[in-house]
Amino acid sequence: MNILIIDAQGGGIGKQLVSSIKGSIPNSEITAVGTNSTASAAMLKAGADHVATGENAVVVGCRKADLIIGPIGIVITDSLYGEITEKMAVAIGRSNAKRILIPVNQCDNIIAGAQNGNINYLIKCVIEEINNLE
């Protein structure tokens, strides 16, 4: 399974995703794309198989992915403090890949019913969802 992880800002969620997925699903192939070099570097350090940065990397990665994972803001133009461009959000939304979106209430996007919960719990939920897909 080709997993695309997309993150912005400091890459903290992406870093935890890469580390957790590699630990739980060792045969996974992870491509990590940061909207900036800091996010990309964090995911590379966590053990992603392939890493790229920027808008075009998101667009290309979405064409090749079986599964896209990231905070819910990756599908909302101008979210994550403006780091998600319209092209990125459209590419993610139009991708044939399944998407697992993490419900974080940040950057003026509030998900009703989602608690400002522990990111470790949310990452555990992501791993469970991936295992349910296989």
Distance between the terminal alpha carbons, to the nearest Å? 9 Å
The tally of strands reads: 5
Structural class, from secondary structure content? alpha/beta
How is the main sheet built?
5 strands, parallel
Major β-sheet strand ordering: 3-2-1-4-5
* Fraction of residues in H or I helices: 40-55%
Whole-number mean pLDDT: 91
Key features?
single chain, 134 residues, alpha/beta, 6 helices, 5 strands
Structure description:
The protein contains 6 helices and 5 strands; from the N terminus they run E-H-E-H-E-H-E-H-H-E-H. Helix content is 45%, strand content 19%. The longest helix is centred in the C-terminal third of the chain and has 15 residues. A 5-stranded parallel sheet has the order 3-2-1-4-5, with helices on both faces. The protein is α/β, with parallel strands linked by helices. It is globular and about 35 Å long.
